Structure formats: structure tokens, C-alpha cells
Automatic annotation (TrEMBL):
CDD domains according to UniProt: PT_UbiA_Cox10
This protein's UniProt keywords: Cell membrane, Heme biosynthesis, Membrane, Transferase, Transmembrane, Transmembrane helix
Family assignment from sequence similarity: Belongs to the UbiA prenyltransferase family. Protoheme IX farnesyltransferase subfamily.
Bilayer topology: Multi-pass membrane protein
Protein name: Protoheme IX farnesyltransferase
Additional information: Carbon 2 of the heme B porphyrin ring is defined according to the Fischer nomenclature.
One family name in Pfam for this protein: UbiA
Record note on quaternary structure: Interacts with CtaA.
Gene coding for it: ctaB
Length: 314
């Protein structure tokens, strides 16, 4: 064990952690996206469940997402200490030990899956269990340190929540829930690669084979453009399904026009120009990507909410 790791464990052993440190283990910003997309999947699904069941289901899905975050921080503690973006997380900061993070992650994983099964149904619980397994084992333990396609395949973990929400109501999977999964799945690579481009040498220093580290920044820009174009086809095509409608179509046309324009701007960037100019474009694209997913799912929610009043849907 390295000196840094020993020092971190020693600090955590003194009991310096506060509630906020344990909450940070759950990756609350990621959890908020999980909660929102799962809630949209639940509300857009045909049929209904009792409001208390819906509340409990979303709560347990959030807990499951947080459990995944804690286990990710436990396993990635070594690289989190190296990267500027993550070195202030609870484990590298020395406020929570790796053992505590592991115990919290395992306990919350089991709790969330069992309680979702009891509160809703076991199809939704099985999807939640698979999501946790996929994120922790397939992505964190295997893909992340092995292949530059890590975020492409691993992005599936973040795409399952709307399917889980849908299954809470219907007890199954449908073309609509698969399309919501696909929307998030295709969004993840350009969103994350844009972040990588302006994080400079973080991933290289940590030994993580992200695409820009293994194949260079030009190849990464090419990939961002290709995935953005494919994403636009999926996103706009969803307008003509059961979860779409005129509200969603208008939103999708505007957002995808902006997103494709942003990807082209990044793709056309001359690597010889100042880094400040390039990072400005990449940060703008990354910021737009956050709004992109939120507004697409917001439009799906609007269609589902207004349809009974004759304002949504086709």
C-alpha cells in the first residue's frame, strides 16, 4: 500500500467524516440524473401506480444509483487520488476510508434492490440489480482500465434508469423504454469525451485508457461528431413513437441542431490554435450536453403530462 493510501486510511480512522462526506460518496449529481430519467420513465409509461409506490420506487432507484457511486469510489480510489477532478472526493481527501465506502455500497445495493422488488415488482428490481452490477463490475472494474471504448459500452449503466421506471409501472420492457435507454446510451460518449478533451492530462496521469489518451485528440473529435450525428437520428426519431409528440419533436429539432453544430465546431478545431480557444468550445459543448439530455426527457415528461388534456402526443 502506498504512503498516500496509508495516510488516507489513518485520517479516515480518526472519524473526521461528516454527513456530507458520506453523502458525497453517493455521487449526488449523477444520482440526480438517475432520479430524473427514472421518474420520466415511470410517468411516461402506460398505466399508473399509487403515488406512494411511485415515490418509494424512485427513492430506491436513487439509493441504488448512490450505491453504485460508492462502490465506484471504493474501487477507483487509487486513480481518484491522481486526477485533479476527483482528488477532493471523500476517500482521496481522507475523510472516509475505502472499507467504509465498500460497506456502504454493498449494504445500499442489497437494500435498494430488495426494497424496490417489494415496493414495485421484481422485474424493476432485477433491472436495478443488473444496473449496479454493470456499472461496478463491467464498467468500473473491467472496461474503464482496459479499453478506450470504456465509456461507449459502460455508458449503458447510466441508460437503464428510465427502463427501470417504466418497468415499475408496466412490469416489463417495451420499444419506448428501449428507445429512452438508447437516447441516453448514445448521448454518453460525446458528453464524456468533451469532458475528457478539456481535462487535459488527468486520465493520462491516472493511466486510464480514454480515447484521447490512446488515439489522440483528433480521433476523439471525429468520434464525437459521428456519435452526435447518430444520436440526432435516434433523438428525432423518438418523436414519432408513443413517448413523442409535437412538443418533443420541436424540442428535439432545436436541441439536435445546436448539438450537431457544436460537434462540428469541435471537429473543425485547428489543433494549432490556442488551447484557451479550443477548451472554450469543448466546455460549451459539454455544458450544452447537460441541458440536452435534461430537456429531451423534460419534453417526454411534458408529452406524458399534457396528453390527457389534449395538448401532447399525436
Amino acid at each position: 500500500m502506498s504512503d498516500a493510501s496509508i495516510n488516507t486510511q489513518a485520517k479516515a480512522a480518526h472519524g473526521d467524516a461528516e454527513f456530507g462526506d458520506y453523502f458525497a460518496l453517493l455521487k449526488p449529481r449523477v444520482m440526480s440524473l438517475v432520479v430524473f430519467t427514472a421518474a420520466v420513465g415511470l410517468l411516461a409509461a402506460p398505466g399508473s401506480v399509487h403515488p406512494f409506490v411511485a415515490f418509494c420506487a424512485i427513492l430506491f432507484i436513487a439509493v441504488g444509483g448512490g450505491a453504485s457511486g460508492a462502490l465506484n469510489m471504493w474501487y477507483d480510489a487509487d486513480i481518484d487520488r491522481v486526477m485533479a477532478r476527483t482528488k477532493k472526493r471523500p476517500i482521496p481527501a481522507g475523510t472516509v476510508s475505502e472499507g467504509e465506502a465498500f460497506a456502504i455500497g454493498i449494504a445500499l445495493s442489497g437494500f435498494s434492490v430488495v426494497m424496490l422488488g417489494l415496493a414495485a415488482n421484481w422485474v424493476a428490481a432485477a433491472l436495478l440489480a443488473f444496473t449496479i452490477f454493470f456499472y461496478v463490475v463491467i464498467y468500473t472494474m473491467w472496461l474503464k482500465r482496459w479499453t478506450p471504448q470504456n465509456i461507449v459500452i459502460g455508458g449503458a449503466a447510466g441508460a437503464f434508469p428510465p427502463m427501470i421506471g417504466w418497468a415499475v409501472v408496466t412490469g416489463g420492457i417495451s420499444i419506448e423504454s428501449l428507445l429512452m435507454f438508447t437516447l441516453t446510451f448514445m448521448w454518453t460518449p460525446p458528453h464524456f469525451w468533451a469532458l475528457c478533451l478539456f481535462m487535459k492530462s488527468d486520465y493520462k496521469d491516472a493511466g486510464v485508457p480514454m480515447l484521447h489518451v490512446t488515439h489522440g485528440r483528433r480521433v476523439t473529435r471525429n468520434h464525437i461528431l459521428v456519435y452526435t450525428l447518430l444520436l440526432a437520428v435516434v433523438a428525432i426519431g423518438m418523436a414519432f413513437t408513443g413517448v413523442g409528440g409535437p412538443i418533443y419533436l420541436t424540442t428535439a429539432l432545436i436541441l439536435n441542431g445546436l448539438f450537431v453544430a457544436g460537434a462540428i465546431s469541435i471537429w473543425r478545431r485547428d489543433e494549432e490554435v490556442s488551447e484557451a480557444d479550443g477548451y472554450k468550445r469543448e466546455k460549451a459543448f459539454f455544458a450544452l450536453s447537460l441541458l440536452y439530455l435534461f430537456l429531451h426527457f423534460g419534453a417526454i415528461l411534458a408529452e406524458a403530462t399534457l396528453a390527457p388534456y389534449g395538448y401532447g402526443g399525436w
